Fold these 2 entries.
Entry 1:
Amino acid sequence: MSNYQQESPEVTARFVNSNFVRKIEEGRVKEAEVESSAFIREKLRQEAAVREIIVPVGISEDEIDRDENTDQPKKIIDKEPDSTATFCQFQGTGQRTWFYGPRYSIFFGKVESQRFTKSKFELMTYTSDIRKILSDNSVKDMADEEDRAFYNLVTDIIALNPAVQRTSGPFQSSTFKGSGQSMLRRRRPIGKMLMTKSRFMDAIDLPATTVGSDVAKRHFDEGIEATQKLWGYPCVTTIKADIYDDDRAYMFAPQAPNNFLGNFYLLQDATLFIKQEADIIEFWSYEALGLGIGNALSIQEILFT
Amino acid sequence: MTILTSKFNFRGRDPHPAAKASLATVLKVAGALGPYSTPGGSGTPVIGPIFRGAIVCMDVNGEAILADSDATNVAYQATQQKTPFFVAVDGDQDFDGAFVHKVTALQGGMEILTDQFTVDPGLIPGAPVCPGGNIVGDVGMFRLAVPTIVPATDEQIYGYVGSEGYNTVTGLLHVIIPQGV
């Protein structure tokens, strides 16, 4: 349940805008920032597909790791050490090993929207909600940057090991089954799938003979918007076919209860900053995040042919 | 009157707080490796080729590469077109650069102290400097711009040794990079 208060029909966009401008005029910038930051964070959560695959976790100053060569933050993550067990006779013993726990580091970067500059006099002419303009122009761009970074990471991982981590085939049960089996053979549980909405629409073509008449009828009557899963696997869909390849879907291991996948840390969640000098109002959004996949084998790509 | 249908707009960034006269831009790093681009990757981001304070220029894709006078001089002599040089502030060898694979790059209009240069007795105040090159092995670094080092008559100067010159104690070179060199 979002804390963001929805605009009621009685409150016009012009009123919201004048409120926004008035708060800035009266020096209540902080209030305007907090109100709009909450809105932006909620929108960002909906817009970035990566946030549905790897849920971002806020990280505080005392949780980051330092480095003697730089003043930039990082976070070192422990991976599970490799281990084995063995049957042996009662007088035998297990193997001795000196265990080493591999680690990997999450580095951080900043995503920042464009810095919007406008005269307050020009701003007064806007009849649409300024906060919507913010979400349309800055939040989507920021979410795109998150998704682009995630997609680049995922494609790098698959490109290194395509023979094992890629399953090719048409949009039908056998392809998804093959992909899931590949994950399971590597002892990776299956969490969520990710694909574009346009590719997800192929589910409409799944015949009643394979998905049952109830599902086929529902797809015919209501489309696929109500469909959240394919063969039991939760599906994250995105409209960003310009970022995520329309011909590919991905299966990811779950992040909980045991983290089989990776980490997404927020040094600071999306925040709106507003500044006014005389009649010029500037506002922009920024966030600081780190994203990494610690377990490269926890991803399987489906290449649709 | 502001015509809303016009496509004209500004495209740029606020200046770097320490180099306000300099044009600031952000460039993707050409050929940057992801954390799993090579076998054995652990997931930790991999550092790239651009070091802090390096002179960079754009390749044909608009991505940052270390500036190489040997290459840019040949291009300049062929086309008489200068190559815009920039100084990469943090490079992509630091954590954030290695993660985002982009570098903040500043063009002319700044003074810097740098340890990224080839020592030369000719580096006295007012002497011209240019990017290094592959032949000497100082790509992306500053060096004295003299035709005897790079056998080219039309070497592209990027800046000048500043009034503090080369400090042999600190090992730093003061460089002034005016706008529009």
Entry 2:
Amino acid sequence: MIPLQVSLKHKRHEGRAADTLSALEFKLAAGEFAAIVGPSGAGKTTLLKIIAGLDTRFEGRIGLAPETRLGFVFQEPRLLPWLSVADNLRLVKPDLDDDALEASLLRVGLAGQSRSYPLKLSGGMQRRVALLRAFLIRPELLLLDEPFISLDAPTAESLYTLLLDLRADIHPTTLLVTHDLREALALSDRILFVSKSPARVILDHSVNLPQRRRRDDACVAQAQAALLAEHPELLTGLSTVSPGAARTLLESV
Amino acid sequence: MMGQDSRTDVSARLIRGLSLLLVLLCWQLLAWKVADPLLPSPIAVVQSLVHHLREGELLHHLLKTLMRVTAAFVIAMVIGVAVGLWMGRSRTANLALDSILVVMLNMPALVTAILCFIWIGLNETAAVLAVALNKIPTTITNIREGARALDTQLLQVGEVYKVPRLLTLRKIVLPQLYPYIMASARSGLALIWKIVLVIELLGRSDGVGFKLGTFFQFFDLTSVLAYTAAFAAVVLAIEALVLRPLDRRLNGWRS
């Protein structure tokens, strides 16, 4: 568990006229589970890439030691199709012995699949492997880039449970990027709402809901309705929110 | 389904075999009609092949050539893959080496052979190097294309999880290059076979190329064709026994 401090000044993609990210600052406490919610194209994926060190062309600072154990779950499972499930996992954790491998596959509901190739598994199963891969290295920081996108509801729900189960052992500081407010409310302790590109934090919202809630629970639906009633501009028309208005928004919370 | 498949398999083989037989038959008929030692019949060629196998030194020369082919092939593939990968991934390397590559690609085999034999001497090293030099540029060009098409998303997985460089190369990069490497190996083997004989003719006193040169001087076309047949058999055997099984192994995950 480690804290994460992000203070970005500028990030501009090559050949673009405007910044993708600018003046984006926030801090996560060690072990915290935060979600970043914002419209598509806000630069949320770029932010995760910068934190993970995959993109180094930016101005600003990420307070993260280079030896930090980092788990990253991408939008697509990103398993290597020519490696079996076992070899995919051993790629990140070479000292994984057969017993530990079988035990961890059992844990994520993939018992006996160690020799399967990823393309033979269903989308949900591939995502289970991707989640397991991220947790096998016992991450101190876990970055999730819309990992439950385009899944049917029961599959997504079972993956939420799996994520929370795996997280309960290790408690990595976690940052989930999503454009699905329900998902953020169901999983995280804190939601950072960001504006359209260049993304800035327009609302820092603490989620105070019962632990282990489901996406369809009434409390999640109520929290969503309450949030949108109070801040109708959160998910739509974000471009009209000026920095000044955002500050008042922040203060009103 | 299985029965259907094996039946198509059998008929496919039948068609392949029949067409070959037909060509041989035409050849045989033509040879009878012409009745000239400059057009030996297939039967005469087979007899000559058996003779060279029993009495002559066919196996010795074939083995010599095979060794040169293998050495040149391995050198060309290793250097070609390494440099191709480098040029595909590094803009600076590509800019620095691209013009040299274009010159090398267009260098006639005869020129590399003459230069190698004169500078290095009429020896084995010069022969193998001359062959390899002809193959390296085409391998580089092929592999460079593959290296440019590497999947960034998968490379990022290796980067995020801090997979060591050598492991990244073996498990993430090379598997993506296998189709390019296999294509390069196939075309490379064909090219090397052709060039190695010219080089042997020029500067060696053994090998199939040397023998063909000798038969040429005596207008012994039967022996030329016998050696060619032995050679073709080896090529087919390498394709069937090495390249095709290797292909199947590397592509096992796709099925």
